[in-house]
Amino acid sequence: MAGSKKKKITKAERLKQLQEEEEKRQKEEEEARVKYAKEEMEKLEIQRVEKEEWRKLEAKDLERRNEELEELYLLEWCFPKAEKLKRDNRLLSQWKHYIQCDGSPDPSISQEINTFISLWKEETNETLEAVIAKSKLVLNLIGKLKLILLETPPYDLQEKNIMQYQGSILELQELLHLKFNIATELLLRQASTLADVDSGNMEKVIRDENVTVYVWANLKKNPRYKSVTFSETQVGFEIPRILATSAIALRLLHTRYDHVTPLGPVPTASQEPTSTVTRLVKDEVKSIEAAVSEDLQEEGKEQDNESNSVHDEETKAEEQGNTEEQKNSVREEPKATQCELEMKSLSETISAAQLLLLENAQEKPRFFEDNEVDLCQFTTLGGVYHLDILELPPQCKPVKGWMIVEILKEGLQKYIYPPETTEDFEAENAFPPIEVMLEVHENVIFFEDPMVARWDAEGKRWKTDGISNVSYKSEDRLITFSLETFGPVTLIQDAHVNMPYQSWELRPLDMNKVLLTVTTVFTEIQIQIKENFCMLASIKLNNKKYSSILEEKWMTPVSFILALKEAGLNIFPTRHSHFYVATNYKLPLVEMKAYRQMALLSSAFAFSWSKWNAVCDSTKVVFQVREYLPKEEPIHNPNWTLLMLSGDRAQSLRINENSEAFSEALKEETEFHSTLYHMVKDFASKEAMRYIRYSSCQFTDSVCHMLLSTRLLSYS
Questions:
Q1: Helix or strand or coil: residue 523?
Q2: Which of 4, 46, 212, 664 gives a 20 to 30 Å CA spacing to 116?
Q3: The pTM is what?
């Protein structure tokens, strides 16, 4: 028992033990302190070395900045060259039209278009078929005028020209609709001779690629005949008893175009000086020109020094000979200088115009009332359905081999439904809403169920009130709704349904040919760009191939953008879009520089979306890049380089797309550069640089225009 007891620790031993523990603790603390101090010293040394290296790289970048900017400035002369070619093409198309002598007017010449309008006004007794045939020419003229307004840069458009073109567009639109009304009246006068044997009423459907006309005349006035459905279609109406017993006609004029919505404003050169960012472009161009002129002055000084060292003993005859040579060179210099100044001025103006495409509006255009459609947020699709209840005109009567008809002086009259006063009618619900069933245009894509809007003629706006019981069958492409009063109606969709984008990629296909892929929540759109043309390569909806009539059709960039918008494939933000979409704001000047330089490199380099672009601030853009020579076999897991571009610096980042956090640390063994071109030049092959140098100016300009229009860096 006594042996198993623990030995009692004495006081001295306890003190010794505590002392040893204290010494051990102090030793560990000292070792930790020394280790921490050593690590801090090493860390500070690394930071010092990195800062020193950073300063050296910055100094090196600053030293060659003027040289790099000068080279980029010369490369970007492709933009004014492309603009001069576009001007030449516009003049050439006018000349071709002139020598074609096909009888159609040149819509840009007021005398010709006015003569055309006057002569068409004088034509009478045109049938619906004749008007529809003539409408192809009219729509072509309207389309040409709209393209002139959209394709001509703001600095080449004068206010008087804009007023002239828009005035001609409105006159043609109004006259075309008037002709449809007159032709409808002509048809309705003969309704009794065209009556259906079974129903006793007249029905007619005329189809065309741009217009479809449905006309029904109520000749029998049978109160039980309330359901009107046009043969071989699913278009129809459910009319109330009061209309079933009235001498009326129903007309549905479905135009694939929209001549109801007012024309939008056209940017002019007068708007440019008001922009702060536009002035920044001019300052930027001036700084580059200053850098170029400094280099030229230095070369000039060197030449002067060399010439001063030449022997002074020159003969009088040699001096006279030199004088003659100088006189000849003086005559030639003004021409060269004038051409150079013209190109410099054009380059500056183009930069300012490109910057205008990237400027965000500071405020919404105006306040929108309840039920009013905001056309900055929504867009009309599938054209306009002109729904009309018409008074049946007096019918033709055969008399002794003649057809007698009473022609009303006031022409075709609308039947007011519901009437302005309803006191004479006993039933409270004598004028219920009319149920309408319409076919949705097959070439238009709705990513969500469309909304129905009616035209308010007094307020000159689209509104959504007075419409109820809307039902959409996407598989049958049928929409049914009830309408209180007849008039123009249209289908609307959120213009930003495909924004922001989920990802994008720009990849070379061949010399002067690239493929732009934009992926959104609903679709994947692939666009091919070559020379000065664009084409829809493919569309995928919910990962399934979708067939569109726009595929395999080459168009100019402006025409192509219009066609995509009209088909419901809108990936082109406006200056008001940031009010309706969560954007990744970037300074317009930085964004513009990125697009211009990406376009310059697009023949040999692929660019792609990066998640880090949303993390860096508004003065920088981040994207992935890699060399991709045309006809190169696709790589399953390509090795992308992450680049960051600010207004005056490009650099490779150490991080990649799979890194855990964002860092602006420079990639090992890389340097700063003033331009994206010189950044990729460090790791590009000779073949890639050859592709870039021999790229067509029109191709580069088209790629740049598409990048500016889609704004991939701000809306993804």
A1: strand
A2: 212
A3: 0.84
